[in-house]
Amino acid sequence: MVDKKLVIGLAGMPGSGKSIVVNVAKENGYSVVVMGDVVREETAKRGLELTPHNVGKVMLDLREKEGAEVIAKRCIPKIDASTRGKVIIDGLRSLHEVDEFKKYFPSFRLLAIHSSPETRFRRLYNRRRSDDPDGWTVFHERDMRELCVGLGNVIAMAESIVVNEEAYDIVKERARNVLLEVEKKWKT
Question: Is it the case that residue 88 has pLDDT exceeding 90?
Fold first, then answer.
């Protein structure tokens, strides 16, 4: 039996290129739920500036007070509200979140994207979002915080991994092929 909604979780270290996969998914009819938006919304709600330190502190605080799967729980209503049959969730960080999504969405699939630390740092430094690092030390601290909540385990358990060290068009095509494979399995 095919579930009514295909839900794909996407994991990757900051700057690994999750947005490439998300953009390909959008082009192919997916709606998008961004887990980091939940944390940024909570940070702003608390009246804090959106700095790497504040966003990271709120992420850890939420998990400590409401459980390791809190961000996933806050995303589930957004996924349910989607009128599209395919949803990609950008930014899973722990196996607790994976398990939470699997409880609600039997067709849940897990993908990851990977890039080297040097490549990721360069991308984040050039992107200049308010919560992006302004130096290697802040970048490294963020990586360690992400790994401490379990992101490395999520990447290790992914059913497919896209390596993002080549030209944009090559990576985009890889992402498209991975999504098509997942959809093919979902439909059978």
Answer: yes
